[in-house]
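Forum: Protein Structure Q&A
Topic: Joint prediction for protein chains with partners

I've read a bunch of threads here and the consensus seems to be that you should model interacting components together rather than docking separate models afterwards. I'd like to see that in practice. Below is the full input, 910 residues plus whatever partners are listed. Could one of the regulars post the assembled result?
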Amino acid sequence: MSSAPLDELIASLGDQMVVTDPDILAGYRHDRANDPDAGTPMALIRPVTTADVQVVVRWCAAHGIPVITRGAGTSLSGGATAVDGAVMLSTEKMRNLTIDTATRTAVSQPGLLNAEVKAAAAAHGLWYPPDPSSFEICSIGGNVATNAGGLCCVKYGVTTDYVLGLEVVLADGRAIRIGGKQLKDSAGLSLTKLFVGSEGLLGIVTEVTLRLLPPQASACTVVGTFASVHHASEAVLAITAKIRPAMLEFMDSVSINAVEDMLKMGLDREAGALLVAQSDAPGPAGIAEVELIEKAFSGCGATEVFATSDPAEGEAFTAARRAAIPAVERLGSLLLEDVGVPLPALPELIDGVEAIAAQNKVMISVIAHAGDGNTHPLIVFDPADADESARAQTAFGQVMDLAIGLGGTITGEHGVGRLKKGWLPDQLGPDVMELTARIKAALDPEGLLNPGVLL
Amino acid sequence: MSSAPLDELIASLGDQMVVTDPDILAGYRHDRANDPDAGTPMALIRPVTTADVQVVVRWCAAHGIPVITRGAGTSLSGGATAVDGAVMLSTEKMRNLTIDTATRTAVSQPGLLNAEVKAAAAAHGLWYPPDPSSFEICSIGGNVATNAGGLCCVKYGVTTDYVLGLEVVLADGRAIRIGGKQLKDSAGLSLTKLFVGSEGLLGIVTEVTLRLLPPQASACTVVGTFASVHHASEAVLAITAKIRPAMLEFMDSVSINAVEDMLKMGLDREAGALLVAQSDAPGPAGIAEVELIEKAFSGCGATEVFATSDPAEGEAFTAARRAAIPAVERLGSLLLEDVGVPLPALPELIDGVEAIAAQNKVMISVIAHAGDGNTHPLIVFDPADADESARAQTAFGQVMDLAIGLGGTITGEHGVGRLKKGWLPDQLGPDVMELTARIKAALDPEGLLNPGVLL
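Posted by a regular:
Agreed with the consensus. Here's the joint model:
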């Protein structure tokens, strides 16, 4: 790689924005998937404005240099892993955010954290619902790129349901605006929806217009303790067959114990599984929902059922669930799954994961956004143990095969990234893969945007 | 057109499925946009299965014959208008529907009416929310093609929010399945969302998997009578700034009187505008919402405010609003608008439409899904009066220019079709139009699917 063209870019953007210091670059090679095969970027660029992004993309297009767009680097499937010789475009300095109370929208650059958008909305008495467990450390741009979900999505939907408009820099450097603050829009193809979840393959999102809601009503929390994961998954179906809870989260015994080790909050270490459900329906409707949840828990063999309308108590259990990934991560390296199935297949999925763990002699902890059938089997392994690492990799693939076999998906909310692309054709089939490639080629003919992801 | 290839198609499909009788064909030339320039199809084909559709599309591809896909023919923007020499593919015989209570989904062929899907879901204690005013006569396939909205969308979202999966026959005759019964899915590009609202340009939807909800709670209805449209539009903003009502509909004096002429239900003929709002929040939350709506009506100068928790009374007002288009249609031919704006611009849009009517000396009746800023100015004219017809056409364009100028859209829920495509570039701009054309070319390189729509 000649450095001459990079000088050209530094001349355009200034040397503050273009980083080539190898020590700093090293910190941008990996995302949270910790791919050992991560490459080394030729430069890190931290644009501030859409115009900066256009300069970068035009320069990359002129010189045939790939661009990896990175938000907060929390991808669990390698969506923001560096590629040798590519430009790493970090959106971390793109932090403008305005809340428009008249239209109840947030207009955000991609570098804001999800929690910052939530907080800014809340300061105006409004609510941005999507709440990935990583909401305090993940960026809104990354949420858009992966169509991120979270805990309240079972009732309130995922990121795409809140994206009203986008500004996108295309592969040739043009910036387009699609959608806007209007709540309904059938004019033209659904391009806004196409860019959401496109994992940086079709363009670089430089601004997002998000729909905000009136604040969520205060929720009641019901916690159920079960002797086995199977009983807990049956309880999930008993609830989702009747109501749409505001939250319905699942933890198995490994994650319960790992969280208890970390947080020491008094969780039952003997439990086989824990369900944390919430209802935010107001008044008598909420009371009826809580009763239905309690009854479903008891009816499916819960050993203990605990309900509280105290928000602090409820938040403690939600925080415990959110802490599960970092807590289990203390037990070893993780291969983090994100498989989802149609709800009736949830017990079979959870039982199947248990069998895969036994068969491969690896520890798999299952946590789940159970109410929408989206599970996170966490495969724990010691990377220094080559044999265990290989067995973990085998289990990783078998879990995806299982989900596909049950009519489900290899990823409910994290995206395919680089880690799961080998399984994508098994889920989508050759015709849908070919269609995907055609759209990619139409929008990024040179293949410079986030190469190695999805395709 | 040689008839030899058509014989080939009749040999494959049988002569029941392929219609060439000119009297029958005449009935399939127009949709509800009544385009005087509608063409005459070479044949009408009424497939039953996906395989039938594949045969038709492959035959059309082989002979370079365009295909217009038609649901129930209720398009108000010419999305299903015939083109000379094209095949008209009607989905009216594709009527399989299954309700899966375990996953709370409906799997429907495109030919079912929206009302039939709603009724089948209701028979299982479930609810399919999207409710175009035409729900009793429009097809679910057409709803998917236009991303149709309706009255409850202000709280419950539009068609795309309920489409979990699709089967689509592509331009080359291959059938693909995308999405499914899983509630969350981030695997691959958001192709399901891309096909929703694509107006028959990218493929032919042969099956749709729809998310169903638990039944809607019973709603309270609040009706406000206003001296002017401006006061009513201010009341809309006072409500939407605070809550998300389950319905917030608007009628002006022309539509009030037209409906009263037709239904004789005792509407106030002196009213300048009527708002019909609903809250379906249960218990005290619902009471608080109703009070807020009443207060907003009174605070914005309502001359009368009437609230009822009687479902039949509420439905009478909803039915009155739904009857507005057929009622106003009795006054003359209609050019039916569907413009939407960000909510704060609603009063300016409604005032501007009044000015356009005065300036062009045409009658324009405004009805609206006011709660999401989506209005239907109905331009009334006598097609036998060439001068008035020309003035109506001028007004039609000016209303779209006005909406675009206010940062809005030329269509909130009806689609662009053939009638509005002249204005689409003004809304989207050349870069988005070019992007649209690239996606169209990638999926339908020969341009045989619904030519003349959008592009």
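DSSP finds 15 helices and 16 strands in chain B.
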